[in-house]
UniProtKB/TrEMBL annotation:
SUPFAM superfamilies: P-loop containing nucleoside triphosphate hydrolases. Its EC number is 7.5.2.11. InterPro entries: ABC_carbohydrate_import_ATPase (IPR050107), ABC_transporter-like_ATP-bd (IPR003439), ABC_transporter-like_CS (IPR017871), P-loop_NTPase (IPR027417). One of its GO terms (cellular component) is plasma membrane. This is Ribose/galactose/methyl galactoside import ATP-binding protein. It comes from Candidatus Merdiplasma excrementigallinarum. Belongs to the ABC transporter superfamily. It is a peripheral membrane protein. It is found in: Cell membrane. Part of an ABC transporter complex involved in carbohydrate import. Could be involved in ribose, galactose and/or methyl galactoside import. Responsible for energy coupling to the transport system.
Length: 200
């Protein structure tokens, strides 16, 4: 981070690496799954367990049966469609590949999930499956911070929306205040909530 503070469950933390973030219960799903998410030459199981290998390697050996069981269970829960756990992730549809990446982070048992454009590049049916998964995750008591450029997605999924313009927060809206017009006015800088809602 360049500035500001990060708090998890009310406690300020100074995170210096991705590994430390994961250990503190904070994960991030990148908007570009092909560049920063999937490992195309690896299987769906290997992609899912990549961030939680410590769960399956202890006592000086790898516990593949436990890995296969836990990945199978979370795939079933998330309705991941794949011919087998050994199928290359590059052969899956965009929606199923995205669900594999979500499964990767769910296996880490995070408290806070930052999801950057979680439905970008997937079909309508897969989008609604992702939305349901996100709703279920929140019901489990976890926090989701969703970054999205799709207004209907934000309005339909969020409890609170922070809007930014030129790198600054220009508005914070609660659910009863949501409207596309109001969000766009903050996003274009016509209304700056940081200045007590004064119109420019």
């Amino acid at each position: 981070k360049d500035s500001g503070t990060v708090k998890i469950n009310g406690t300020q933390v100074n995170i210096k690496s991705p590994g430390e973030a994961i250990s503190r219960g904070l994960i991030m799903l990148s908007e570009d799954r092909k560049e920063y998410g999937i490992v195309p030459v690896r299987s769906v199981m290997e992609n899912a367990s990549l961030a939680s290998l410590k769960r399956y390697f202890y006592g000086g050996r790898s516990h593949k049966s436990k890995e296969r069981k836990e990945v199978s269970e979370i795939f079933r829960k998330m309705n991941v469609k794949t011919p087998s756990l050994d199928t290359l992730i590059s052969s899956l549809s965009g929606g199923n590949a995205q669900k594999v990446l979500l499964a990767r982070w769910m296996l880490c048992e995070p408290d806070v999930m930052i999801l950057d454009e979680p439905t970008r590049g997937i079909d309508v049916g897969a989008k609604f499956e992702i939305y349901k998964l996100m709703t279920d995750i929140v019901k489990e008591g976890k926090t989701i911070i969703m970054v999205s450029s799709e207004l209907p997605e934000l309005i339909g999924m969020c409890d609170r929306i922070y809007i930014m313009c030129q790198g600054r927060i220009t508005g914070c809206l609660n659910k009863n205040e949501f409207s596309q017009e109001r969000i766009m006015m903050h996003a274009t800088g016509l209304i700056d909530g940081a200045k007590k809602g004064e119109e420019k």
